[in-house]
What we know:
The protein has 6 helices and 5 strands, in the order βααβαβαβαβα. The protein is of the alpha/beta class.
Amino acid sequence: MKILIVDDEAHLRMLIQQALEDLEDEGAELVTASNGEEALDAIREHQPNLVVLDVMMPKKNGFDVCHTVKNEWGQTHTRIILLTAKGQEFDKQRGEEVGADLYMTKPFDPDMLVEKVRHLLDQTGDAS
């Protein structure tokens, strides 16, 4: 099982990694990327089961990355959590339109993130 963490802010990538450390003990491999283009490369290379994806990033935003993966590449099995400071209803609707499985706003509760990740992985049958 692979989980890709994508955020242009290094401290947030680290925070998300720390939150998901327990999943590493259960066999998950955590991979990171710092912008949208790196995210698409990492998704192609690693074929992650789940992506925790920041929305506001350089080179390609999270909405565009999600749309590419879910709609252009047809990888509907890849679970995507959009994580963003933008909590307006319009943004949540856009997240649904591009195929996100879940939309969470920052700041986030690390325990809640772990719970949501586990839930989405359980849906795919990829959780340990």
